[in-house]
Structures are given as C-alpha cells and as structure tokens.
Amino acid sequence: MLSAILLAAGSGKRLASAVSKPLVKIGGLPAIIYSLRALEKHPQVDEIIVVVNPRNRAAISGLTAKFHFKKIKCFVLGGSLRQDSVLCGLKNTAPQSSWVLIHDCARPFIEQADISRVIRAAKRTGAALLAVQPKATIKRSGRLNLVEKTLERDRLWEAQTPQVFRKALLLKAYQSNPASKVTDDASLVERLKAKVQLVPGKYENIKITTPDDLLLAGLISKRFKYAI
To answer: Which CATH number is correct for 2-227, 3.90.550.10, 3.40.50.970, 3.20.20.70, 3.40.1050.10?
Structure first.
C-alpha cells in the first residue's frame, strides 16, 4: 500500500499573495487541484493525506469537496517547519501502508508517467526522487562573494518532488534526526547512508515560490488543460 502526503501548509510569504499558495489560481484553477488530480488518478496511490495550516484548512477542505476526490483520507495540521509537516502526515498514514510518496503542492505540474517512474525506482532501492540537472553554470562563492570554485555541472541535480520512500526507512530517518532543518526528505535518508535513486524529471515541474514563477506557471498550465 502506498500513501501520498501532499504538503499544503506553507504560507507562501515570498509569493506576496492575498491567499495561501495552495489556493493561488493558475490557469483558472487553484494550484492544489493540479497535484490532487494527478495523485487521485494514479493507480498506485491508495490514499492521500493533505497537510494544511489553520488559516487555509477550511478553504482547502471546501474546495476539494467540490471536485469529489475519493482518495483523500484526511486533512491534518502541519508544523512550523517542513519536516514537522511531513511527520504529521506520516503519523496519519494507514498502518498497513509500506510506501510513502511526499509531494509539495507548490509543484502543480507533475505527470502520471513521472509518478510511476519514481515509485518504480524507490521499490528497487528504498528511496527515490525526481530531479533535473541545472542548465546554468554553477559557481560556489567564498567571502565577499568571490568565486571559490566552478562546480561540475554533470554531477549536480536540482531536487524535485515527488519523493518516494519505504515508510519504515523514512520514519527511521526522522527519528534519527529530530532537530534537523531540511528542505527535502531525501536529505534525511541520505544521513542514514541509505541508497537514494535520482530519477530524471522534467523542467516543467517547477516550484512556485515568487510572483515570477506564476507567470511561467500560467504558460505551462495551458498544456495541462487536458488533465483537469
């Protein structure tokens, strides 16, 4: 059994929006609907736990009811940090669930084939995530923003979601690093020296963080109209 945890508890301050990030309209639809529809349609996803915050819980619950999502198990309140929210979601997965998929609703443009590939990779190694290689040359800076080193681009990857893990492995990672501040779950699993498979994703799987991202998202959403 596979449980999907959809993170929708962020405030989205950098987006400078009057509504929280999951409710921001993209192509006429709230951002969270894209991710929920993708997870709802995928045959290997058995249940969805949506992690929300006190300010957007009622709005998201009411919105999703209109779309009749059948796989949503519950809405749970997240914590102050990302890892707190994931842990809240983990605690609400079904006891018989063996696999967990973590996805950020700020990445609305996830495709069925990509979900399948990252699940398949995780079942081989125990952990996997979507990622893309940077297009730009990456510099590492030292003091006063002086270039310290030019990094080897061929070995660099930008992490995305979904990320899929054996549930027992992810729980162990969280229990072993209770006070760590991380930006993705794979980094905690890496600290256990466990294998984490990189799965090439798509550049369209952008994360919406700033107002500029909304402009690009509006263009990408036109290709996703068929899925709504």
So the answer is: 3.90.550.10
